[in-house]
């Protein structure tokens, strides 16, 4: 029933999460025989990105129990022990999915006239997306309003992340993607603004020098204070004498001594350091430094977002692993591991016994016998499809908002809002991801933020909301120009209504800080699931540590060659040249290079 | 195994590169030889275009090839259609080259040339090329230059360009080119009618505020401060170019408010309606200078007390009157004064920069801007503060201390000169100025000392920068004691000078002293307390040149030039 795999490996990696994939690529890159398994039919595990339909299937699958493991005793030797794999550390809980809009059938029928007036908007909306004839004919009938049917029908235009994460422009992952030459497998968009909630409204935080300069709400002295503080964090770091005496104090206490105006203090605390009242000075300074270090490299903010979702990134590493000979097998479950002499000798999967030197295993497949603590840092997630941005702007934005707790019982929430240009959702919609540390259920933990920024009430199908004035749908290019002229202030965020939620999903992800017990075989390496941090640094560092433990003397993901640097053995002699074929003007140079290389 | 991944080693890649390079060299040599041969023989054909095109694509900076191409355009007999076609191809070629090297002088120049020769250049495309290029690198001054060229040719309205410069500054204000561009556009859009401010008063305020924003955001970025200098550079103007004239039977001295060049066509001297043939010479042998002299041959001018003497310069008639004080014919006018502008606004800015300097005591730009603001608001009222702040600057910015010292000297001298003239009034002759022990490192406004007879600069730090003394054309008695002077090489020839004190300096060259005495008609020279005063034979040698000269060599009781005044 299942394919037979080769039976001996240097490294077997189970699970295609971020850490697992990086380790698999690194091992394969230095020539190790790698087998990479995943029980799912998709890549990424809890790091995955789904389209709307895929997400529905994923939710459905969680309800059905996994198949039982067959008898394995025949595959074991006398002194070996079999430890059954378990999925208890990847349990997703408290899934609540809600619709706030109706089916097509319940929507009022709009006159043809209405549809026509909306025509121009819709044409723009479909720009860049694939245009089939079906789409076109459909457009004539579709009303502007979004319905459950329409979202389900356009399922492919959604990319929904289980664990949305940003990359610091000079963070571990960006540097790794560049140094390993894996960056060419991925595309990114810069986060266009960092927002903060202040004095009852959302404002854009001036974080780059250009922002600070152009900002008209901050006085010249506040500008100086802000720049001065940022520069000292940036240049001197937490060990500078500047921070003497604050080692045991909070970042807030340090800021209080700097005579900052409330606005500047707010910007630094909540948007740049993303700190709470409890954050230590050291952490605050380091976070500020990290933020600033990454500024000015790719965009207006320090952050990048992976196009098509965070789930793309593990796949990039898998691709490199495969290029260097790694064997991939999806829909293949780990049944358990074979332990003998204090080592993991093999795994059992699909009635096969596969021998290995190292086992790298995602937390979702660990046998409970070798786990010491099941972790506390569980994650509450909320995903919303909305009809407009939380903060209307002149152009489509990719927004990061850090919202500190209003009460002590709450946790700080990070909110990422994605527009259609990231391919997270179709034109006219926005995708909002909120994440915080779990205390109760996801819905309860996130309720205060949902209430603050979103309108999550069921929409009466007969009441048409004002057309979204989001440029992504209705504003024609010339009208946009007018808006640019008029709107410098962000006051409109007050006047414009909160985004209407069309669909929402709450879920709790498992803890990422589970630990192996001391008795676990030393050649078993644990890869954590998604963590609470904004970026991927934790996963990258974990992968590095695992690789270091396995192959202390080897390079970690050295630069992979470009295709033209690769010679296929037996083809080193130049092939016959195409004579008489004169290269065209523009291509000439390249062709010359190519022929020269072949020689 | 077939098809397995094998990566070329760096050594292999290096080897490949070497071969590639060698090939390129051969190609280059062959190409250049061919092109030069054809050029020499005057064979202008398609091949020369084709060859040079391939070569400039690889290296657009070989400007000779572009020259050859332009020659070829002229060398071939084209039909109008083909000519335009070829020019358009040249545009495409330059664009390709710019992609490879957007900072190539020759390529930008070639593009200008092409557009100059096209019957209907497409300026819209050129402008969008500039915009594209400046998006990639907003500080590419080649492109800013080219943009200016396009804007001028296409007659693009200035306000559009102004907006463009604003957006560029907003994305990154560390941009000398864009600030500079503003300083070119703004005076055209909003000229100041009085010509005293660089731009109209209300716009001046706006720009000052904008630049203040930039300087507070990043005080270490010099581009904004430079633009601010331009804004704060108010010109003191006077409607007359000539400030003063003194004339007697022997010579005429004219002091101008600015540096000018005199010749017979722009300047004439008339005595009783008779044109006097005068040969003006500049005081420092430069073409443009502010003090000009002419000497008359004996009996060259027939001057009577009631003669009508006038100087015509640049169409303006300056009447000279007999002055009893000077025993000379004289034309006198007020010192040009600095008009006050935007005082209220400048004061607000001053407050901000003072506060900034308080928060950041080491912020030299804030201090310096404060000084310039104070000078523009009220130089007299703030004189003490200005000097104090300059002293702070000298201390905190050691690398530029000499600059601040010079600036300080300028302010001190200007203050003193204005003070003296304001005190005495225009009609009174000011025959002396006393500027001792004021830490002066340079002279300033020396043109206004050109009629003074006694000038005391003792105890300063003029050092060897003595060239500016050339303006002191009427000076009879000059003290340069204790100025750290090592060399007299730059000491000018001053016709009126009789008494010169160089006491307590570091002069060591006898030759220089001898040369000084040869060049100047001195009666007393004080060189006490200098290494050179111990030179053997010094007195003998000096007497040989000038038997009448009284030389002070060693400290002795008796007369002393410094104390005798």
Automatic annotation (TrEMBL), chain A:
Region Disordered: start and end of each range?
111-140, 464-496, 555-599
Biological process (GO) annotations? intracellular protein transport; small GTPase-mediated signal transduction; vesicle-mediated transport
Which UniProt keywords are listed? Cytoplasm, GTPase activation
What GO molecular-function term can you cite, just one? Answer: GTPase activator activity
Where in or outside the cell it occurs: the entry states:
Cytoplasm, Cytosol
Question: Which SUPFAM superfamilies is this protein grouped with?
Answer: FAD-linked reductases, C-terminal domain, FAD/NAD(P)-binding domain
**Compositionally biased spans, kind Polar residues:** 464-476
Major subcellular location class:
cytoplasm
Q: Compositional bias (Basic and acidic residues) at which positions?
A: 128-140, 477-495, 579-599
Assigned GO CC terms: cytosol; nucleus; Rab-protein geranylgeranyltransferase complex
Identify the residues that the record assigns to the RAE1/2 domain, covering every copy.
486-531
Any Pfam family hit? GDI
Feature: compositional bias, Acidic residues? 563-572
Q: What does this protein do?
A: Substrate-binding subunit (component A) of the Rab geranylgeranyltransferase (GGTase) complex. Binds unprenylated Rab proteins and presents the substrate peptide to the catalytic component B. The component A is thought to be regenerated by transferring its prenylated Rab back to the donor membrane.
> What is the similarity comment for this entry?
Belongs to the Rab GDI family.
Q: What is this protein called?
A: Rab proteins geranylgeranyltransferase component A
Species whose genome carries this gene: Neodiprion lecontei (Redheaded pine sawfly)
Q: What is the lineage of its organism?
A: Eukaryota, Metazoa, Ecdysozoa, Arthropoda, Hexapoda
TrEMBL record, chain B:
**So what EC number does this one have?**
2.5.1.60
Protein's GO biological process = prenylation
What InterPro entries does the database record attribute to this sequence? Leu-rich_rpt, LRR_dom_sf, Prenyl_trans_a
Gene3D superfamilies tied to this protein: Protein prenylyltransferase, Rab geranylgeranyltransferase alpha-subunit, insert domain, Ribonuclease Inhibitor
Keyword Transferase in the entry? The reply is yes
Coiled coil (residue ranges) = none
Identify the keywords attached in UniProt to this record, alphabetized: Prenyltransferase, Repeat, Transferase
- Which Pfam families does the record cross-reference, listed alphabetically? PPTA
Q: Which reaction does it catalyse?
A: geranylgeranyl diphosphate + L-cysteinyl-[protein] = S-geranylgeranyl-L-cysteinyl-[protein] + diphosphate
UniProt keyword rRNA processing present: no
GO function terms (MF aspect): Rab geranylgeranyltransferase activity
Gene Ontology cellular-component annotations: Rab-protein geranylgeranyltransferase complex
The record describes the protein's role as: Catalyzes the transfer of a geranyl-geranyl moiety from geranyl-geranyl pyrophosphate to cysteines occuring in specific C-terminal amino acid sequences.
- Give the family per the record: Belongs to the protein prenyltransferase subunit alpha family.
Name of this chain's protein: Geranylgeranyl transferase type-2 subunit alpha
Task: Report the source organism.
Answer: Neodiprion lecontei (Redheaded pine sawfly)
- What would be the name of the gene that encodes this protein? LOC107222456
């Amino acid at each position: 029933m299942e394919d037979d795999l080769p039976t001996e490996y240097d490294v077997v990696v189970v699970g295609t999460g971020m850490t697992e994939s990086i380790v698999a690529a690194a091992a394969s890159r230095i020539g190790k025989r790698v087998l990479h398994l995943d029980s799912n039919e998709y890549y990424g595990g809890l790091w995955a990105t789904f389209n709307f339909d895929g997400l529905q299937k994923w939710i459905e699958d969680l309800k059905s129990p996994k198949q039982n493991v067959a008898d394995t005793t025949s595959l074991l030797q006398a002194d070996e022990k079999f430890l059954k794999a378990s999925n208890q550390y990847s349990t997703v809980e408290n899934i609540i999915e809600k619709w706030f809009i109706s089916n097509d059938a319940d929507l009022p029928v709009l006159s043809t006239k209405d549809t026509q007036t909306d025509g121009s908007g819709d044409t723009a909306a479909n720009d860049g997306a694939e245009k089939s004839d079906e789409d076109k004919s459909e457009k004539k009938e579709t009303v502007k309003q979004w319905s459950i049917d329409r979202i389900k029908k356009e399922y492919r235009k959604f990319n929904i992340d289980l664990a949305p994460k940003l990359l610091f422009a000079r963070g571990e992952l960006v540097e790794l993607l560049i140094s390993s030459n894996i960056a060419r497998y991925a595309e990114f968009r810069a986060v266009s603004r960092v927002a903060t909630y202040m004095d009852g409204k959302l404002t854009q935080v001036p974080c780059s020098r250009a922002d600070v300069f152009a900002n008209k709400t901050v006085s010249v002295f506040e500008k100086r204070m802000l720049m001065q503080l940022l520069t000292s964090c940036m240049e001197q770091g937490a060990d500078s004498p500047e921070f003497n005496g604050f080692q045991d104090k909070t970042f807030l206490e340090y800021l209080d001594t700097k005579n900052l105006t409330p606005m500047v203090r707010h910007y630094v605390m909540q948007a740049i350091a993303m700190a709470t009242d409890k954050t230590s000075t050291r952490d605050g300074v380091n976070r500020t430094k990290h933020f600033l270090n990454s500024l000015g490299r790719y965009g207006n903010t320090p952050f990048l977002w992976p196009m098509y979702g965070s789930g793309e990134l593990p796949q990039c590493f898998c691709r490199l692993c495969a290029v260097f000979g790694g064997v991939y097998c999806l829909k293949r479950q780990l049944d358990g591991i074979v332990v003998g002499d204090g080592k993991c000798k093999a795994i059992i999967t699909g009635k096969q016994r596969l021998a290995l030197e190292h086992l790298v295993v995602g937390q979702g497949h660990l046998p409970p016998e070798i786990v010491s603590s099941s972790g506390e840092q569980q994650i509450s997630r909320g995903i919303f499809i909305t009809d407009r941005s939380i903060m209307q702007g002149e152009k489509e934005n990719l927004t990061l908002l850090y919202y500190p707790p209003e009460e002590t019982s709450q946790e700080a929430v990070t909110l990422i809002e994605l527009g259609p240009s990231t391919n997270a959702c179709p034109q006219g919609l926005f995708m909002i991801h909120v994440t915080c540390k779990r205390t109760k259920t996801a819905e309860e933990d996130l309720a205060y933020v949902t209430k603050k920024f979103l309108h999550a009430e069921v929409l009466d199908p007969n009441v048409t909301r004002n057309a979204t004035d989001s440029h992504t749908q209705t504003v024609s290019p010339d009208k946009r120009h007018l808006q640019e002229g008029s709107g410098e202030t962000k006051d409109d965020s007050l006047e414009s209504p909160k985004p209407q939620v069309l669909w929402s999903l709450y879920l709790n992800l498992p803890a990422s800080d589970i630990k192996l017990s001391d008795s676990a075989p030393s050649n078993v390496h644990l890869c954590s699931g998604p963590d609470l941090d904004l970026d991927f640094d934790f996963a990258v560092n974990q992968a590095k540590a695992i690789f270091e433990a396995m192959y202390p003397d080897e390079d970690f993901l050295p630069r992979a060659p470009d295709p033209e640097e690769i010679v296929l053995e037996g083809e080193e002699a130049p092939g016959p040249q195409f004579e008489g074929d004169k290269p065209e003007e523009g291509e000439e140079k390249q062709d010359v290079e190519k022929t020269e290389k072949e020689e | 195994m077939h098809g397995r991944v094998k990566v070329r080693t760096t050594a292999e890649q290096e080897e490949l590169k070497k071969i590639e390079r060698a090939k390129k060299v051969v190609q280059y040599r062959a190409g250049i030889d061919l092109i030069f041969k054809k050029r020499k023989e005057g064979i202008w054909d398609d091949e020369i275009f084709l060859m040079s095109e391939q070569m400039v694509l690889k290296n657009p900076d070989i400007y000779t090839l572009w020259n050859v191409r332009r020659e070829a355009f002229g060398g071939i007999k084209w039909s109008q259609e083909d000519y335009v076609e070829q020019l358009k191809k040249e545009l495409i070629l330059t664009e390709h080259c710019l992609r490879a090297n957007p900072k190539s002088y020759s390529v930008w120049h070639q593009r200008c040339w092409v557009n100059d020769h096209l019957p209907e250049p497409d300026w819209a495309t050129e402008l969008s090329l500039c915009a594209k290029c400046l998006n990639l690198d907003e500080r590419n001054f080649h492109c800013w230059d080219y943009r200016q060229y396009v804007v001028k040719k296409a007659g693009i309205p200035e306000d559009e360009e102004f907006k463009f410069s604003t957006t560029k500054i907003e994305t990154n204000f560390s941009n000398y080119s864009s600030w500079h561009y503003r300083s070119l556009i703004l005076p055209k859009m909003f000229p100041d009618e009085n010509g005293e401010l660089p731009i109209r008063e209300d716009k001046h305020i706006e720009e000052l505020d904008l630049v203040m924003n930039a300087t507070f955001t990043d005080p270490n970025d010099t581009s904004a401060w430079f633009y601010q200098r331009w804004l704060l550079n108010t010109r003191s103007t006077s409607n007359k170019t000539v400030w003063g004239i003194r004339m007697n039977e022997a010579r005429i001295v004219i002091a101008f408010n600015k540096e000018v060049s005199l010749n017979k066509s722009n300047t004439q001297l008339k005595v009783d309606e008779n044109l006097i043939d005068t040969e003006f010479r500049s005081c420092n042998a430069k073409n443009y200078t502010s003090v000009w002299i002419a000497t008359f041959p004996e009996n060259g001018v027939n001057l009577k007390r009631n003669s009508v003497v006038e100087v015509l310069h640049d169409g303006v008639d300056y009447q000279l009157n007999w002055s009893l004080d000077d025993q000379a014919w004289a034309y006198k006018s007020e010192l040009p004064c600095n008009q006050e502008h935007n005082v209220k606004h400048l004061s607000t800015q001053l407050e901000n920069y003072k506060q900034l300097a308080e928060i950041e005591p080491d912020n030299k730009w804030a201090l310096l801007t404060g000084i310039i603001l104070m000078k523009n608001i009220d130089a007299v009222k703030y004189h003490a503060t200005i000097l104090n702040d300059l002293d702070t600057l000298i201390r905190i910015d050691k690398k530029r201390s000499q600059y601040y010292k010079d600036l300080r000297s300028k302010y001190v001298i200007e203050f003193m000169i204005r003070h003296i003239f304001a005190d005495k009034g225009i009609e009174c002759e000011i025959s002396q100025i006393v500027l001792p022990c004021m830490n002066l490192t340079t002279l300033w406004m020396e043109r206004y000392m050109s009629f003074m007879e006694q000038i005391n600069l003792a105890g300063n730090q003029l050092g060897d920068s003595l060239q500016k003394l050339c303006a002191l054309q009427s000076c009879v008695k000059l003290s340069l004691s204790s100025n750290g002077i090592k060399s007299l090489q730059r000491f000018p020839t001053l016709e009126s000078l009789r008494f010169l004190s160089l006491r307590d300096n570091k002069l060591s060259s006898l030759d220089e002293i001898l040369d000084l005495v040869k060049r100047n008609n001195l009666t007393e020279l004080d060189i006490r307390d200098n290494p050179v005063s111990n030179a053997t034979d010094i007195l003998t040698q000096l007497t040989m040149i000038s038997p009448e000269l009284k030389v002070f060599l060693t400290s002795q009781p008796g007369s002393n030039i410094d104390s005798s005044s």
